[in-house]
Amino acid sequence: MSAIRLLVLGAVRQHGRAHGYQVRNDLEYWGAHEWSNAKPGSIYHALKQMAKQGLLRAHEVAPSTAGGPPRTEYEITDRGAQEFFTLLRASLTSYDHDQGVDVLSAGIGFIVDLERAEVVSLLRERITAIEGWRASVTEHYTPAEGPESIGHIGEIMNMWVHSADAGAEWTRGLIARIEAGAYTFAGEGEPFIGVLAEGQENPYAAEVPRPGDPG
User: Fold this and answer.
1) What is the DSSP annotation of the chain?
2) How many CB atoms lie under 10 A from the CB of residue 171?
3) Chain-wide mean pLDDT for the chain?
4) Which of 12, 39, 91, 188 has the fewest C-beta atoms under 10 angstroms from its C-beta?
């Protein structure tokens, strides 16, 4: 599962309608260009591909004030919203030690789009997946006497197991915070929306936009 689809769909959904640079600016504001594959080229490519797939609807609008060709604004379709929630739920439940944390990070960025009780349930599924993976590894690969008994290669599995333990501990902490009332979830009022208004300066921008940047 790639984080870019979830990130782009979620950013467009939060705006209602957004052009490519707005989406890119939001994701850079979240630091997604540092912890995921949300680089400028992949963002614009994802927008165009998902428009072709019917997940986004493209609207050509007037040229940007900076000059260049007309910009394209995107809005999410019903199919796109369904895909967004499918990806979001999967990001919170799945555990793949090879995948890294970009998919989970993308999912955490949109947890308030779900109801509180569902988020807790999904995160508990994640803990179950982590514990299942850990049990399968320690049963077959990690000797009881420690990783040294199979040479330095044992440290590879040792690292994976420790990463799984840390991930489970963090997830339990998040569940506890949510159950204690942290954050505003769907159906509870106006949630925090971490998107930039049109023209608002992004202090974390990776690059200043240039005239002719794709919309």
Assistant:
1) --HHHHHHHHHHHHHSSEEHHHHHHHHHHTTHHHHSS--HHHHHHHHHHHHHTTSEEEEEEEEPTT-SSEEEEEEE-HHHHHHHHHHHHHHHH---TTT-SHHHHHHHTTGGGS-HHHHHHHHHHHHHHHHHHHHHHHHHT--TT-GGGG-TTHHHHHHHHHHHHHHHHHHHHHHHHHHTT-S--TTSS------PPTT---TT-SS---TT---
2) 18
3) 85
4) 188
pLDDT tens, position by position, 116-133: 999 999 999 999 999 999
Confidence of residue 209 (pLDDT cuts 50, 70, 90): very low
> In the predicted model, is pLDDT for residue 166 greater than 90?
yes
pLDDT tops 50 at residue 170: yes
Q: Are strands 18-19 and 56-63 parallel, antiparallel or unpaired?
A: unpaired
Q: Confirm whether pTM is higher than 0.85.
A: no
How many C-beta neighbours within 10 Å does residue 164 have? Answer: 20
> Are the beta carbons of 130 and 139 closer than 8 angstroms?
no
| Alpha carbon separation from 18 to 13, 113, 213 (Å, rounded) | 9, 18, 15
φ/ψ region of 38 (left if φ > 0, alpha if ψ in -120 to 50, else beta) reads beta
